Design the sequence.
């Protein structure tokens, strides 16, 4: 089997891969992407951020009906979950068609549906649509992503996962009366929020003492009381097994405070995390893999200067937009002859929990500052004062901005409540630009928009 020479091969075609693939192909490089799905955008579009947010925004419409009944609107529309799923599927199909058109417009860029395996540090064998092919690669980007982690729990096969909920043509097409979610990370809590808004009773079981482990406790404490009352959070729960009843229901057996108990549900969802997908043959290359994934620094290079690892597979910031930025960092460094010219920032990446309402954070927040013995000065703005929040009857939550003492340079923030996902991006640009409280205070942001709260939070210091 003769090897095909390529300038870049990416293992994966998601956010950690295709931005670099497009950048190099447009610069004249011969580029191949290899992905088991055979389509671009990875798990984000297949079972992650895009389909889950399509469900979220639809659920938010149903939830908003309750806030405006005083206007004499028609009676509450009952959610049709099959229609919600159809909308989600339509969004996914539309974006897949968009990506296919983008791919077709770039010469010297080929996407192979298949599985890649390392032969050596420069050779990759692909078992794909044309049988087996071998490529000799000047550069390689490992961007194989992550997958749902299913723990060795007796009866785990009786539960659904985020894959089953959000993939095209998902397993669940009817709204369950009672949903039990095992796991209180962002996937579990977001899913709880969507289904509660649509009308399900939701019980969420969390092993630890806080949902959203790893997020700043102050932000979490702001968010949790604002969640829908149909969500029942149970902390300190050790799930022991799942059982099916003759009627097709589910029983969750667990221990809490040393006592055994059980919960009956229509559907159980396992949401206990994801783990990196490592390509075959990686073991023999001397590439370091730690508990998060492939170990890399801000230049995204592995122990082999021509091999990069981007996105969820390195576990540094497992978010699609972070993967895109990392992919471009790798592309710039490849174009620079594998000499670092660009570096990823693993700290100042906006992170939004798309619950209803949402919460978002970036940079250095109080918990991280305390751990590093860093002092902060805090500015704040309550949405109870906000004109847009009042118009939309979403007056809970606040903006908090965190500054260095003395210089008052912005170093971090969180937003809980209205437009959190939008606002954190504007705040992130201010952090990246090195702006201070003085800069934010004198910028005339639009009225009546929630973004004017950023300047007001800064002015709370003066």
Sequence:
């Amino acid at each position: 089997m003769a090897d095909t020479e390529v300038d870049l091969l990416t293992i994966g075609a998601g956010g950690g891969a295709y931005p670099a693939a497009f950048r190099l192909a447009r610069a004249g490089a011969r580029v191949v992407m290899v992905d088991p799905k055979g389509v671009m955008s990875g798990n984000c579009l297949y079972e992650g951020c895009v389909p889950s947010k399509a469900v979220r925004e639809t659920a938010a419409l149903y939830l908003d009906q309750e806030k405006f009944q005083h206007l004499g609107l028609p009676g509450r529309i009952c959610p049709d979950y099959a229609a919600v799923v159809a909308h989600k599927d339509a969004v996914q199909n539309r974006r897949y068609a968009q990506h296919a058109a983008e791919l077709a417009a770039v010469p010297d860029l080929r996407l192979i549906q298949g599985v890649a395996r390392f032969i050596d540090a420069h050779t990759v064998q692909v078992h794909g649509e044309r049988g087996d092919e071998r490529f000799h690669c000047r550069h390689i980007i490992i961007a194989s992503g992550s997958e749902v982690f299913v723990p060795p729990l007796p009866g785990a096969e009786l539960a659904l996962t985020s894959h089953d909920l959000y993939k095209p043509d998902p397993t669940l097409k009817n709204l369950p009366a009672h949903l039990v979610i095992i796991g209180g990370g962002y996937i579990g809590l977001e899913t709880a929020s969507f289904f509660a808004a649509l009308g399900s009773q939701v019980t969420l079981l969390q092993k630890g003492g806080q949902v959203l482990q790893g997020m700043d406790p102050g932000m979490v404490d702001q968010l949790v009381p604002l969640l829908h009352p149909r969500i029942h959070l149970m902390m300190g729960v050790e799930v022991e097994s799942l059982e099916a009843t003759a009627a097709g229901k589910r029983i969750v057996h667990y221990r809490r405070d040393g006592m055994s108990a059980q919960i009956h549900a229509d559907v159980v969802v396992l949401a206990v995390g994801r783990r990196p997908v490592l390509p075959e043959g990686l073991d023999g290359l001397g590439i370091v893999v730690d508990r998060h994934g492939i170990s890399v620094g801000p230049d995204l290079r592995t122990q082999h200067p021509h091999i990069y690892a981007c996105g969820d597979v390195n576990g540094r910031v497992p978010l699609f937009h972070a993967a895109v930025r990392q992919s471009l960092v790798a592309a710039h460094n490849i174009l620079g002859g594998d000499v670092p010219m660009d570096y990823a920032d693993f700290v100042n990446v906006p992170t939004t929990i798309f619950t209803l309402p949402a919460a978002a954070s970036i940079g250095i927040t109080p918990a991280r500052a305390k751990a590093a013995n860093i002092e902060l000065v805090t500015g704040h703005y309550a949405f109870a004062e906000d004109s847009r929040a009042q118009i939309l009857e979403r007056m809970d939550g606040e903006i908090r901005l965190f500054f260095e003492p003395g210089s008052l340079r912005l170093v971090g923030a969180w937003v809980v409540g209205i437009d959190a996902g939008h606002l954190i991006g504007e705040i992130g640009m201010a952090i990246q630009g090195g702006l201070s409280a003085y800069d934010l205070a004198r910028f005339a942001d639009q009225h009546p928009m929630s973004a004017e709260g950023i300047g007001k939070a800064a002015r709370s210091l003066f």
About this structure: The first strand starts at residue 3 and ends at 11. The chain is about 30% helix and 25% strand.
